[in-house]
Amino acid sequence: MFADLHLHSCFSDGTDTPEEAATLGRRHGFLALALTDHDTVEGCARLAAACAQNGMESASGTELTAEHKGHELHLLGYFLDPSHPRLLHELARFQAVRQDRVREIVARLNYLHVPLQSETVFSLARCRSPGRPHVARALVQAGFCRSLDEAFERFLKRQRPAWVPKCKVSAVEAIALLHEAGGVAVLAHPVLTRADHLVGELAAAGLDGLECFHAKQSSAVADHYRRLARQYGLLETGGSDCHGSSRGRPLLGSVRVPYECFARLAAWAQARRAETPSDTENAPCRVAGAALGDRSMATS
């Protein structure tokens, strides 16, 4: 009775198709999967169809890069309406920002006498939500680096010469957007963002859940975040954060989240959809820096 609620596919910076993810999920005996590609819901319908064929449940989702008080945060949205007009409008804007970031990274590489072209990266990515992993793969394929690790170490990591910071939406506005689209808002991999002190403020702003189970969180750390979730009445979620076999670990199957997490997310989303729509339905999210009951899980 397990699920994996944090997966990426070829619709963002993963390498597997949604169908391949469903096949792997079935092979590992999962009952439910959630696709959380960066700034897109394009692959969700395909995952849903593939999961249904494999006797599994699924959730449509996305992952947004946000910030709160200067801290970068990643927010996962679950059980979103993938046809919601404003969600799609905002995701299209976020995708444009991602594409501009790739162009700026390539421009910095060109300044360093690395003759990579933006169109080469976009052709390799074949998606609307490209990111640094696509640039790294393009550098390796063109022979400018021997490995993805080398590409990040030489050029793409923070404080490296081709680093370009992400443009981020306000976490409060991102939570509101996910709610408006009928979804549940969850703080992803808090162990990586090191923003435990902000969880209370985010919960007060409408955050619904906390990713307590993650490939880069030990069981002791998971227990810490389960306690934090209970403290603020947040749902407990988790997943592998798998980006596909060619990206190395973590892989689908490496994190086994209790199915109850999925069931509680689904119930909370159903309650969310029954609420009155926000009166800020047409308000755009601001992208910072863009130049252009008890919800905790009671299982032991």
Polypeptide structure, described:
Mean pLDDT is 90; it is low at 289-300. The chain has helices spanning 18-27, 44-53, 85-111, 118-125, 132-141, 148-156, 171-180, 190-193, 199-204, 219-231, 259-273; strands spanning 2-7, 32-35, 57-68, 71-78, 168-170, 184-187, 209-214, 235-239, 257-258, 287-288. By secondary structure, the chain is of the alpha/beta class. Strands 1, 2, 3, 4, 5, 6, 7, 8, 9 and 10 form a 10-stranded mixed β-sheet that branches. The radius of gyration is 19 Å and the shape is globular. Helix 1 runs parallel beside helix 2 (44-53), helix 4 (118-125) packs across helix 5 and helix 5 (132-141) packs across helix 6 (148-156).
CATH level-4 homologous superfamily of the largest domain: Metal-dependent hydrolases
Task: Please work out how many helical segments DSSP would assign.
Answer: 11
CATH architecture of the largest domain: Alpha-Beta Barrel
pLDDT < 50 runs, ≥5 residues:
289-300
Task: Write down the overall mean pLDDT.
Answer: 90
